[in-house]
Amino acid sequence: MPDRDKTISHRVKVYRYLRDGIISHVLRPGDIIHERRLAEAMGVSRTPVREAIQSLRDEGWLDVVPRKGTFVRELKRVDMEELLQLRYIVALSCIELGGHRAGPADIAYFESLIARQKDASAIEDAVAFMTADMAMHIGIVRLAGNRRLLAFTQDLCDNFQRLGIQALIRTNR
Fold first, then answer.
1. What is the pLDDT of residue 109?
2. What's the CA gap between 29 and 41, in Å, rounded?
3. pLDDT of residue 143
4. 168 phi and psi, to 5 degrees?
5. Cα separations in angstroms, 129 against 66, 109, 116
6. Cβ(49)–Cβ(14) under 8 Å?
């Protein structure tokens, strides 16, 4: 059983490394992921690398092209539209489900996030703005009290962060 636990932890380590790299745009759309190089660099076998790649492919972060390789997937316009639709649906539903639960501390927290967004906007700090924005959406979902919806929203926020950084890089070119 210890070998299974070790493999799982290696897979998770590789998964997080790749996903964080994609979100932060260290790994850019079109970049190739070399299984062998990644396994060597991370000090793991190729099995957890393959498992992490499979998971990320299933989640839409990577494209695997037979006999060509594994590539960081670019978010297309349709991806952006779908993410915006999901965000809208989730936010409205959670406000409806949990808005009545918001107490004075919650209201103060949301007001502080709005203030952070205004400050970030004034100095054109897109990363700080996005961080406050993601915290706002996670906070709204927490009020709904649905742990599955919270996990879904955290994944959605990761996609939004990736989308925002990708847009900023294109704008600054």
1. 96
2. 21
3. 92
4. -65, -40
5. 39, 15, 7
6. yes
Q: Which of 128, 133, 142, 169 is nearest to 25 (CA)?
A: 169
Place of tokens 């203030």: 115
Q: Which residues contact 28 (CB under 8 A, 6 or more apart)?
A: 72
Per-residue tokens: 102:
């918001």
Name the stretches of the chain with pLDDT < 70: 1-8, 168-173
Predicted TM-score of the model (pTM): 0.73
Other C-beta atoms closer than 10 Å to the C-beta of 162 total: 21
Q: What is the pLDDT of residue 123?
A: 87
DSSP string, the chain: -HHHHHHHHHHHHHHHHHHHHHHTTSS-TT-EE-HHHHHHHHT--HHHHHHHHHHHHHTTSEEEETTTEEEEPPPPHHHHHHHHHHHHHHHHHHHHHHGGG--HHHHHHHHHHHHHHHHHHHTT-HHHHHHHHHHHHHHHHHHHT-HHHHHHHHHHHHHHHHHHHHHHHHHT-
